[in-house]
Design brief:
alpha/beta, 4 helices, globular, 153 residues
Length: 153
């Protein structure tokens, strides 16, 4: 089977369910994970696993080789713009045709929230890249509340 979809953040809150859904439907995917220890989370018959690092172009080139579409997500961090725009540039150079970027509701260049401005900057970079794109702007994930859960005994 030909691998055509790369899922970054493949062991995360959105990447892992996406890998599972696509493989359930028989779609071959390449799962980009950051640490080899998480390999068992995404192993399966149609999953091609690659360890990748947004800061290392060679690892991105390896992850993107032969890929037509990519799901782009990374943890919020001060270097998110640099990491994701480097990913987009590498994807374009490697022949990727379409990027699906997980962004956020309220993404705008003039947002008072830094993270939303970063997403807007990355989206603008993707638009200017000439690649086809889909931007996802979810409002909130209930899973984010789990860290705040208190165990009552």
């Amino acid at each position: 089977m030909k691998t055509t979809i790369l899922i970054t953040g493949a062991t995360g809150n959105t990447g892992l369910p996406l890998v599972k859904q696509l493989t359930t439907e028989g779609v071959p995917v390449r799962a980009m994970i950051h640490t080899p220890e998480k390999r068992s989370m995404v192993e399966g018959n149609t999953v091609d696993i690659v360890v990748g690092d947004f800061k290392k172009r060679a690892s991105l080139e390896q992850a993107l080789k032969g890929i037509e579409s990519a799901y782009l997500v990374s943890p919020p961090a001060l270097d998110q713009v640099r990491d994701q725009t480097a990913f987009v540039d590498t994807a374009k150079a490697m022949g990727v045709k379409h990027i699906v970027k997980l962004s956020a509701l309220g993404t705008a260049p003039d947002s008072p929230v830094g993270l939303l401005r970063w997403h807007a900057e990355i989206e603008d970079h993707i638009r200017r890249s000439g690649l086809k794109y889909t931007f996802l702007h979810p409002h909130f994930f209930m899973e984010n509340l789990l860290a705040n859960a208190v165990k009552f005994t």
